[in-house]
Amino acid sequence: MSALVSREASPLVTQVIATVGAVPASLLLLLSPNWKQGTNFKLGILFAALTGFCANTGNLCLLRAFRLEGPVSIVLPVSSLYPLITALLAMLFLRERLNRIQAVGFAMALIAIYIVGMATPGAPASEGQHDLRVAALTTPWMLWTFGALVLFGATCFFQKIATFHFSNELCTIVFSLVTIPIAGAILLFGPDLSFKLSGKVWLLSLLFGALIGIGSLAQFAAYRWGNGSVVTALTGLYPAITVLLAVPLLNEKLDALRLTAVVVALAAGVALSYEPGQTSTIEADVSSV
């Protein structure tokens, strides 16, 4: 949906409209009897708000990459490498170490980025293959994609911590409420905003926001009640579905090189998400953050 919307609407406009769809969907969770449950509301609100901020700014980066005609079949596999950033943050702040499988995933992530450099269209011509690859990885839409990668990794890190402090419902409500000041800042300071869009684009933008709210609830619940490594690995596979949809709906071509990049990137994300027996350690470390 975000790729389709970005063809007609700017990232800032899409973000504002998506807020209208996301907030009402999440506020319905106030009807749940569990939304007030929690152990540390101050820390919970802090980390849920950080989750919302990073996720929304990451979405803006992703929308910008699509707006600059970045192909879905490359943008999403690269952004799906966010467990790499999550693992690095866990090493820095939660004193975790990469296990062997995660180390393999780290290497695969670098390989995936290398392949993406070869598969990326629109890079300026260059005499050497290495220079061409560097130029491909520094195209404007690729830089925005890397920004989304970093922000989504931080989102996952803060999201895991937030669920240790209060309910999934309240996490989702705070997550979505953060979009309101972001949308307000866009309306006040955003340049050249135009909301004269077709009804189709308005509908897709609203649905995009609503799905963000619903998907966030599902992911918060999964982190709270499930194995974190499994949750991160499975949710990191979403580009596989989107890339398959992009072929018939966006008329994108999935050649052998792009397909290899997708497979390697998804495998790297799964490997980086492997954390056997880490739940209790993380909970103990988070209490001191």
* Assembly classification: single chain
Portion in helices: over 70%
Radius of gyration: 19 Å
Please state the structural category: mainly alpha
| Tally of structural domains | 1
Which geometry do the CA atoms define?
globular
Give the distance, in angstroms, between the N- and C-terminal Cα atoms. 37 Å
What's the mean pLDDT score?
80
Description:
The protein has about 290 residues and is an all-alpha fold. The chain has one domain. About 75% of the residues lie in helices and about 0% in strands. The chain is built from 15 helices and no strands. The longest helix has 27 residues. The C terminus is likely disordered.
Which keywords apply here?
289 residues; disordered C terminus; mainly alpha; globular
List the helices and strands and how they pair.
Blueprint: H1 2-5, H2 11-27, H3 41-67, H4 72-79, H5 83-93, H6 100-119, H7 129-137, H8 140-162, H9 168-177, H10 179-189, H11 199-225, H12 228-235, H13 238-249, H14 256-272, H15 279-286
Question: Short description, anyone?
Answer:
Helices cover 73% and strands 0% of the residues. The protein has 289 residues and is an all-alpha fold.
